[in-house]
Amino acid sequence: MTTTLITGANKGLGFETARRLLAAGHTVWIGSRDGERGRAAAERLGARFVPLDVTDDASVAAAVRTVEAAGGLDVLVNNAGVEGRRPDNGIVGAAEVTAEDMRTTFETNVFGLVRVTHAFLPLLRRSAAPVVVNVSSGLASVTLLADPAAPGYGYPGVAYPASKAAVNMVTVQYAKAFPEMRINAVEPGFTATDLNGRTGTQTVEDGAEVIVRMAQVGRDGPTGGYFDVHGRLPW
Ligand code: NAP
Q: pTM for this one?
């Protein structure tokens, strides 16, 4: 039996990933910082609920104790993320972005991911087939954002792409340090969720595909890579 924890799984891509992995036979923990929304999501799917705010040490430590007491962890999907848009859904561009904007975005997308991964490492190391999926973004690719022919070139935001580029680097460094684990970064594609005010062009079913695939990667599968649904992406 494979046990999987998905952070930020009360809605969006995380929720859809939970639905699909449950269907594939995983025992799934829905991590959610909001108790009511998380519990309701878990009930809808027949998943387990664990309170988990990735920006809070005590919350993450309590989640480790809960998951450990129930038998451990095989797959960690670091999905919780924020884009840090303005209240009018506008993207904060280079002229406006402040250090505080950067800090807020990194707090969830980067420091949160490291906080959760670090805390769950002892459990993952006890698994026979440990897997980590870091939900990155196509906007993480320095190569693509510097290429005028690439679709993401015109994206004006600073904090979000920088945070996801950091996620990619963290992924590479973890993967080298823990060769017994499969640790990859994935780009779901531009998906209609609350993150982008539902402006995304894909459905969550499409977007979750690569997350679900990488969560089920075999022991002989890739590690330290950056993938979308079609294959490897340039860093
Ligand atoms: P979403 O529907 O807004 O979901 C984001 C999830 O993260 C929510 O469950 C949210 O919880 C949770 N979250 C935010 N801060 C958290 C925290 N401090 N602790 C725990 N959970 C927290 O957006 P989504 O599009 O599904 O995003 C999922 C991931 O995909 C993100 O990492 C995002 O960067 C990435 N991604 C999305 C797209 C896209 O086009 N949508 C493209 C590329 C990558 P609350 O409900 O409590 O806010």
A: 0.99
